[in-house]
Design brief:
Elements: E1 5-6, H1 29-43, H2 52-66, H3 75-85, H4 89-94, H5 99-125, E2 135-137, H6 149-195, H7 233-250, H8 253-265, E3 273-275, H9 277-288, E4 290-293, E5 296-301, E6 304-311, H10 315-319, E7 327-333, E8 339-340, H11 346-353, E9 360-366, E10 375-380, E11 382-385, E12 392-397, E13 407-412, H12 427-440, E14 445-449, E15 456-457, H13 458-465, E16 472-478, E17 484-489, E18 500-504, H14 511-521, E19 526-529, E20 538-544, E21 560-569, E22 585-586, H15 625-638, H16 640-658, E23 660-662, H17 665-697, E24 703-707, E25 718-719, H18 725-729, E26 731-733, H19 753-769, H20 774-786
Parallel strand pairs: 13-14, 14-18, 18-19, 19-22
Antiparallel strand pairs: 1-15, 2-23, 3-21, 4-11, 5-6, 6-7, 6-26, 7-8, 7-9, 9-10, 12-13, 12-24, 16-17, 16-21, 20-21, 24-25
Helix pairs in contact: 1-8, 2-3, 2-8, 5-6, 5-7, 6-7, 12-13, 13-14, 15-19
């Protein structure tokens, strides 16, 4: 059975090649490119030939992928590329010739080196005064390339001045934040000291017990490396561009071909994509939520990779020697020699650490607690489950302060995952487990939170829809021939038939849109959130390129082609392509002014409609949308949190439309101080509201219980006070100063604004609708069964 993917990111391979390559020669990337081109012609929904027109789009994509700000190439460079390749790239690729990709990349690399050299000289010789009235464009992806070197030099002086100015302002902001943090800590310490009672004096004749001396902190002899914030603005700017050049130098032929073929794929539509073997492997991990490795989260850190998280119960955790913030400087496979990983890209380091199950990897680290030394750690690779993105849920019990107490079930789903090869992981199975537990707790209503859910498995989206509606059509699809098919959910009756809201935002895409659209068309759930979802209405499948390559060729680096083969449609006939799913109840969102979504992508397929299918409505009457929206509008007008969002959205829209920023220090300082003052005021006012609510409700606030796939079957619910981030993610991470920024306790009732308003909307729905919940129906049936029956 063919499995389809409905995600705007890379997708997993559906099958493996059956033939084993006989040769050991390096992968012929010219041959790979030719086969990718033929595959696109033959399998893409548009059936577009790889001709001169596509050649021009491919060149455009490639140049923009390399130089998306239009600051490295000049118009002369671009004109030269167009003269040579705008109508001939198709011919070169079909002749297995990828030399144009290498040639353009080499020129790009040379241009970056020239600009870095120019930057070094400018930092040494130019005096940047930050007192002009000049401005610089923020987004330059639509701007023309500089006409020549002279115009480019002038542009780059502005770029350098802007970078230096940004670093200078960042320093001042950091100093101000540290000062505020110190003042806050001192005030907290003073408050704590005032609450502590002095110790009683020792009784006469008694000698106080001697106190143990405090343990001394370990002495570190090595000189600490200069931290990023300790560098001067000039040093940081130079370091950033030097890193860019190093990264570009590090790319090999495989990387360049990846860029080149990705440019070809996206010439057909935004979601057709060429994937290297690394990208395919990463998507499998994303879909299956497991990998084979050591169970550590890596992050780039200067000249190596830093341990930023350790999976609880994973191989590294069990081995016990690897610690958070340790830095990896070399990697060895088994007993082989160590390979220095300094200055390597993070992905290459990750690839070296992952491997086959039950094999050993040795890593050389600089310990976080001893930067002067090194340590070698051997870890046996094993399967590592990744829990952070798995479905989880909450049971929210509303406080009396908000009216009649409600029990709200809240399911969080960040993607539609599935193990497409072994069927060991299933979104629908996991959500059903959580749902049945919430129903056991007799919830009054359910919220399915699909915010930021980019999609995933079509099969799982259909099965999940079937948890909420009886058997019937869920989605339609049309192929290049115009042939229309549809998919049904097969549950005879829904698992849950009570009041329901689906929460979306502009980043809810693909499979999320299928589910939301179906539940909206069936009148099964109220859609709440941003004005509309992402707008991806296309279906992709995966074609391993190796299948199409000759028998006697090395296919290990051939990669996969994710290709659009169908468009999908709502059962009511309309497509979600470009338009997305529109919310029944829209809430203010800053994403509504951002340039995101399918409509902002190049080469997007058009919107269209097909005939609707017959399907039974879940409810006879439409939702009381007008009444609910009237209530929401009234609450939003009185809610400072949403008014702040409205105001910030307006300011951001003006800034986006203006698309320039001043190079004048005083102007930038004024803008920064105005922004900080405005946000400080918002924070102070929020803190005041939090305090007022806390004093009013005392201990009678929200009661929140967290459900994960680990604790869902346990008899006792886990309250919020006993729940840690580690319990949800399964990963131990280093604490960060900014972690508190997303702390919901900073909001009134300890619930972030969209979540709180969604609960209000659920209450509105219950009050206006009076539809009994599943739990209520069950209780009524049980009561009826207990009554004596006439014989």
């Amino acid at each position: 059975m063919t499995r389809y993917l409905l995600t705007p990111v890379a997708a997993a391979a559906t099958a493996l090649a059956l033939l084993i390559p006989a040769a050991k020669a390096e992968t012929n990337f010219g041959q790979v490119a030719m086969h990718v081109a033929y595959m696109l012609q033959n399998h893409h929904y548009s059936k577009q030939d790889f001709d001169d027109k596509v050649s021009g789009v491919m060149l455009h994509n490639y140049l923009n992928m390399l130089d998306f700000k239009h600051i490295f190439f000049t118009e002369q460079d671009v004109a030269s590329f167009k003269d040579k390749y705008e109508t001939t790239l198709d011919d070169h690729v079909l002749m297995r010739n990828i030399s144009p990709a290498i040639e353009i990349y080499d020129i790009y690399k040379e241009r970056v080196k020239e600009r870095v050299d120019f930057l070094k000289k400018a930092l040494e010789s130019n005096k940047f005064t930050f007192d002009s009235k000049r401005t610089i464009e923020i987004k330059r992806d639509k701007a023309p390339w500089p006409k020549d070197k002279a115009e480019q030099d002038k542009l780059w002086l502005d770029i350098i001045e802007d970078n230096l100015l940004a670093e200078r302002i960042a320093d001042e902001t950091r100093e101000r934040d540290e000062k505020k943090k110190a003042e806050k800590a001192a005030a907290k310490k003073a408050d704590t000291a005032a609450e502590v009672k002095p110790e009683a004096a020792p009784e006469a004749g008694k000698v106080p017990a001697p106190q143990k001396p405090a343990a001394e902190a370990p002495k570190i002899a090595a000189k600490k490396e200069k931290d990023e914030k300790d560098l001067t603005p000039k040093e940081r700017v130079l370091k950033d561009y030097t890193r860019l050049l190093e990264s570009i130098d590090e790319n090999d032929t495989k990387d360049v071909v990846n860029f080149f073929l990705s440019s070809l794929a996206t010439a057909y539509d935004p979601h057709t994509e060429y994937m290297s073997t690394d990208e395919s492997d990463n998507f499998k991990i994303h879909m299956q939520h497991k990998l084979v490795g050591i169970g550590a989260l890596l992050g780039q850190k200067d000249d190596g990779a830093e341990i930023q998280g350790i999976v609880v119960g994973g191989p590294a955790d069990k081995q016990g020697q690897l610690k958070l913030n340790d830095r990896i400087i070399a990697v060895a496979q088994g007993d082989d020699e160590f390979v220095d990983v300094k200055y390597l890209k993070l992905q290459k380091i990750v690839d070296m650490i992952r491997g086959e199950k039950n094999t050993t990897v040795r890593i050389k680290i600089v310990p976080a607690d001893d930067p002067s030394g090194t340590r070698i750690i051997a870890i046996v690779r094993d399967e590592v489950p990744l829990k952070e993105k798995l479905a989880n849920a909450e049971l929210l019990v509303t406080p009396p302060d908000l009216g009649k107490t409600l029990k709200v079930g809240w399911i969080n789903l960040s993607n539609f995952y599935a193990d497409m090869e072994n069927n060991t992981v299933s979104t629908s199975v996991d959500v059903e487990r959580l749902l049945r537990r919430l129903m056991k707790e007799k919830i009054d209503g359910l919220v399915l939170d699909l915010r930021d859910n980019g999609g995933g498995s079509l099969d799982e989206a259909i099965k999940l829809t079937g948890l909420f509606i009886p058997a019937g059509p869920v989605v339609q699809a049309k192929d290049w021939r115009g042939s229309i098919t549809w998919r049904d959910c097969e549950n005879e009756k829904p698992v849950y038939d009570g009041p329901m809201i689906v929460l979306i935002n502009k980043a809810s895409a693909s499979a999320s849109e299928i589910l939301a659209a179906a539940l909206q068309d069936y009148r099964r759930a109220l859609i709440v959130g941003d004005k509309a979802s992402f707008g991806k209405g296309t279906v992709q499948t995966i074609l391993p390129v190796e299948r199409y390559m000759p028998f006697f060729s090395d296919k290990k680096g051939a990669g996969d082609l994710k290709v659009t083969i169908q468009k999908f449609y709502r059962i009511a006939g309309g497509s979600t392509q470009l338009k997305g799913v529109e919310s029944d109840v829209p809430l203010p969102s800053i994403r509504d002014v951002l340039d995101i979504g399918e409509s902002s992508a190049e080469n997007a397929l058009p919107y269209d409609t097909i005939p609707p299918r017959k399907y039974p409505l879940f409810r006879k009457d439409a939702f009381p949308v007008e009444e609910i929206n009237a209530r929401v509008k009234s609450r939003i007008a009185a809610n400072p949190e949403f008014q702040n969002v409205v105001e910030e959205s307006r300011r951001l829209k003006e800034k986006i439309d203006r698309n320039t920023v001043s190079l004048n220090l005083q102007d930038r300082e004024k803008e920064r101080l105005d922004t900080e003052a405005r946000r400080d005021k918002q924070t102070e006012e929020r803190a005041k509201r939090v305090k007022e609510v806390a004093e009013r409700i005392k201990e009678n606030g929200f009661k929140t219980y967290h459900l994960t796939l680990d604790n869902v079957d346990k008899p006792d619910l886990v309250p919020e006070s006993a729940f840690s981030k580690e319990m949800n993610s399964g990963m131990r991470t280093a604490s960060k100063d900014d972690d508190s920024g997303s702390d919901e306790s900073k909001f009134p009732y300890g619930v972030e604004p969209v979540k709180l308003e969604t609960i209000h909307i659920l209450r509105d729905l219950l009050e206006l609708d009076h539809k009994p919940t599943t739990a209520a129906k069950t209780e009524d049936k049980a009561a009826a069964a207990a009554k004596p029956q006439a014989q």
